[in-house]
Amino acid sequence: MHQYLFYIGDFPVRAYGLILSLSIILATGAAYFFAKQDGRWHQHIPDMGIYCGLAGIVGARLWDVFFFDWNYYQHHLLEIPFVWQGGMAIQGGVLLGVIAGVIYTKIHKIDTWAFADIVAAPAIIMGQAIGRMANLMNGDAFGHPTGGNFGILYPSTTLAYQVYGNQPLWPAEVWEGQIDVIIFVLLLIFRTTNHAKGQVFILYAILYSTARFFLEYLRGDYGTLIFGLKSAQLTSLTVILIGIILFIRQGRYAERIGLRSKEN
Known about the structure:
This protein has helices spanning 15-38, 45-68, 70-73, 90-107, 112-138, 159-164, 172-191, 199-215, 231-257; strands spanning 4-8, 11-14. The protein is mainly alpha-helical. The longest helix has 27 residues, at 112-138.
């Protein structure tokens, strides 16, 4: 892994920033494909990609600062905007990115749930999978020591090495990226079923949150918060419970009004 790909003069081009930007661009491209395929709203995708991408970056950074690394950043406030150093929480990025998307759909009178099903859910999880590549290259979102002679050995320049030294660590970020790809495929399959409006996006939230809850047991970049659980696990449990309720509610509502179709 290489944190710095090359230099332009004295300016380092970081793998983290480049791959993170690529994840946003490719997720936007995938969203455009899905919208174009459906025949609705594709003209809005470039603008939404910019707004939701920027909101996602802000949300991911603030979530990491306040929920994961506040003990450090409360003494280094000027470093909070330094996103190129790493330290981005996916849950915060998705939350603020979704909020920006909802606001955009309301302003432009777009069916929010239908848009989320057709465009947002598959594109978001694909972007997350690519984003985990950035974490691997940067040496963050790492696992705790495996306790054996297997695992990832990080270079001395990474945060993972600074925390655990030359110990093999669980490939938490790698496995999460692979699971994200599986979720992406499952969502595409579920889209072909006779689902109710909103259920694809809700299923995305449930599946990712479930995977994230269990993967947190392998993460070693921050400690527990309450009841032996980490902040990401508490967030995941909340999303899972709300998601199950909404999934059932949307299904019952569709059956009641007779509005259940493949793509709504």
